[in-house]
Amino acid sequence: MAAVCQVTGAVPGFGHTISHSHRRTKRRFDPNVQKKTYFVPSLGRKITLNVSAKGIKVIDVRGIENVVKDLQSKGVKL
């Protein structure tokens, strides 16, 4: 599963792991992406989204209907 949030667009960040001796090695900071299923009354069915923890909070605040409407206007297939 790709580490990309469908709601917020969060993608992995890149940086360094720094050891005690201060050697730097590349690492990747993945967002907390989870597969969640929501029932959308306007569509009359369930949809599955890959959303980050922040995306889940956005859905709680704005409502699934508004989020789905924005996703469809962006051309995301649900």
UniProtKB/TrEMBL annotation:
One Gene Ontology cellular component: ribosome
Keywords: Ribonucleoprotein, Ribosomal protein
InterPro entries hit by this protein: Ribosomal_bL28 (IPR026569), Ribosomal_bL28/bL31-like_sf (IPR034704), Ribosomal_bL28_bact-type (IPR001383), Ribosomal_bL28_sf (IPR037147)
Keyword Lipid metabolism set for record: no
Domain of life: Bacteria
A Pfam entry, by short name: Ribosomal_L28
Keyword Transcription: no
SUPFAM superfamilies associated with the record: L28p-like
Family: Belongs to the bacterial ribosomal protein bL28 family.
Name the record gives this protein: Large ribosomal subunit protein bL28
Protein source organism: Microbacterium murale
